[in-house]
Amino acid sequence: MEITLEEAFAGKDMEINVPIAEDCERCDGIGAEPGAKVETCSTCGGAGRVRTQQGFFTMERPCSTCGGQGEYVSNPCTSCDGQGQQRVETTLDVSIPAGVEDGTRIRLTGQGDAAPKRQGGGARGDLYLFISLKPHELFERDSANLYCRAPMTMTTAALGGEIEIPTIDGGRSKVKIPEGSQSGKRMRLKGKGMSVLRSNARGDMYVELSVETPTKLTKRQRELLQEFESESGRDTSPASENFLGKAKRFWEGLTD
Ligand SMILES: [Zn+2]
Ligand SMILES: [Zn+2]
Question: Which of 32, 40, 54, 88 could covalently link to 46 via disulfide, CB atoms 3.0 to 4.6 Å apart?
Answer without folding.
Answer: 40
